[in-house]
């Protein structure tokens, strides 16, 4: 059975939180001391964002947008594209100089075309001052090394380990192992006992593929570059990570090398996998449908296992809002983001997202949604624990281009599936990364 992102249902807690959106017609009052932007006469805007996995995210975002339009008269058209299509469409809009006025984009993609984006430093500074500051991980995706914000960090879409408790118990495990050694043993036991296996995306999946591949490498001490930006991916630590990935892959459900972000959701609903990694959306794909009640009641979550480095290492999907310089209505666009990032709107959106979107601003983490369900708990720490994809070097064009080219994902997939030896895969990744990291 195929379940689209738009089909996934909102949890009851999200509906309750989304219901806090203020009534239409409320006066749009900018905070005292905040930058003042008055929309241009006759302004209209178009926002392009990623297609939501959780219905309440979409509903709350549209409700907040309507609230802005009712207060200002600025009509905002919100279009949605698949996750994989956001990156190329943003690049085309930036380079051609036409298309949407604003976009919600991924990771450090804004650093691929910073000169095509409006400076939003004043808004970012004001928001940080009023709402407890930015979490460092998400902040790095909006702020250039010279301190200028070319994007407003919006949220961290937490990635967590998700499993069916009854399945791991049948494999002889009362609890989910917290280290990579024990986790491999669990996955081997699932395969040996013909139980629903593990399955992790290893295709060019913007979220799941990147999150899984970076965790594998980082948890063993590997990294794409060092602090200076020198490519160091071809290391003993990386080889150890790729050997681990090869053993883990042997336990997977067939076909994961081609999985994109939707595939593990489908396998989960079909009962084909008992362990995977995903945002909390995978839980909400089952929670409100009677036919999936058994899976929902059986679902547990945690952070990903700790590897030889001895501490949790996590990459999470991050999204930021950008305004293109080609917009005809820059003041309206700035005013829209100011409004959407203000606390009443952010509280409604975070709650409506049912723990799917962890805020980039510390002042919004007090949302009651994080305590509304035990499955939510691991996702509450996503913005705090996020390690940027360009670790350990600075974020910028090179890190964005390396991510966009799926260098880390392809390396892990090649080694895991046996397409290349770990040594060959690491060497190829080194060559590819060196094309953009010119240090």
TrEMBL record:
Cellular component, GO annotation: periplasmic space
Keyword Signal among UniProt keywords: yes
Subcellular localization(s) per the UniProt record: Periplasm
UniProt xrefs under SUPFAM superfamilies: Periplasmic binding protein-like II (SSF53850)
Keywords, comma-separated and alphabetical: Periplasm, Signal, Transport
Gene3D superfamilies (alphabetical): Periplasmic binding protein-like II (3.40.190.10)
Main location: periplasm
Highest taxon in the source lineage: Bacteria
Keyword Transport: yes
Family the UniProt entry places it in: Belongs to the bacterial solute-binding protein 1 family.
PANTHER family linked: ABC TRANSPORTER PERIPLASMIC-BINDING PROTEIN YCJN-RELATED (PTHR43649:SF34), ARABINOSE-BINDING PROTEIN-RELATED (PTHR43649)
Protein name: Carbohydrate ABC transporter substrate-binding protein
UniProt source species: Salinarimonas soli
């Amino acid at each position: 059975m195929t379940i689209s992102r738009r089909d996934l249902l909102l949890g009851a807690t999200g509906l309750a939180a989304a219901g806090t959106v203020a009534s239409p017609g409320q006066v749009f009052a900018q905070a005292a001391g905040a930058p003042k932007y008055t929309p241009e006469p006759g302004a209209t805007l178009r926002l392009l964002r990623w297609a939501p996995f959780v219905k309440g995210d979409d509903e709350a975002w549209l409700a907040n947008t309507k609230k802005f339009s009712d207060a200002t008269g600025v009509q905002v058209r919100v279009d949605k594209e698949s996750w994989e299509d956001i990156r190329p469409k943003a690049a085309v809009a930036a380079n051609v100089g036409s298309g949407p006025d604003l976009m919600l984009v991924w990771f450090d993609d804004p650093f691929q075309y910073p000169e095509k984006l409006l400076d939003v430093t004043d808004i970012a500074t004001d928001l940080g001052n009023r709402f407890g500051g930015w979490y460092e991980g998400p902040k790095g995706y909006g702020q250039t090394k010279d301190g200028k914000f070319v994007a407003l960090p919006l949220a961290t879409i937490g990635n967590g380990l998700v499993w069916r408790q009854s399945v791991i118990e049948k494999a002889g495990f009362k609890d989910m192992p917290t280290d990579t050694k024990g986790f491999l043993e669990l996955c081997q036991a699932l395969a040996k006992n013909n139980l629903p296996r593990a399955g992790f995306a290893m295709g060019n999946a913007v979220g799941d593929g990147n999150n899984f591949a970076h965790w594998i490498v980082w948890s063993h001490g590997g990294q794409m570059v060092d602090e200076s930006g020198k490519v160091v991916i071809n290391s003993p630590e990386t080889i150890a990570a790729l050997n681990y990935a090869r053993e883990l892959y042997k336990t997977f459900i067939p076909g994961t090398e081609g999985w994109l972000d939707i595939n593990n959701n489908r396998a989960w609903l079909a009962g084909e996998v008992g362990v995977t990694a995903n945002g909390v959306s995978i839980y909400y794909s089952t929670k409100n449908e009677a036919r999936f009640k058994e899976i929902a009641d059986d679902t547990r979550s945690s952070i990903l296992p700790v590897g030889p480095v001895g501490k949790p290492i996590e990459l999470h999907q991050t999204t930021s809002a950008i305004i293109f310089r080609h917009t005809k209505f820059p003041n309206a666009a700035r005013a829209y983001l100011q409004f959407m990032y203000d606390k009443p709107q952010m509280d409604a959106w975070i709650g409506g997202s049912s723990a799917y979107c962890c805020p980039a601003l510390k002042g919004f983490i007090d949302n009651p949604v994080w305590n509304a369900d035990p499955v939510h708990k691991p996702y509450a720490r996503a913005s705090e624990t996020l390690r940027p994809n360009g670790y350990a070097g600075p974020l910028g064009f090179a890190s964005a281009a390396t991510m966009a080219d799926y260098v880390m994902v392809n390396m892990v997939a090649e080694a895991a599936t046996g397409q290349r030896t770990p040594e060959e895969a690491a060497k190829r990744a080194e060559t590819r990364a060196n094309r953009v990291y010119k240090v």
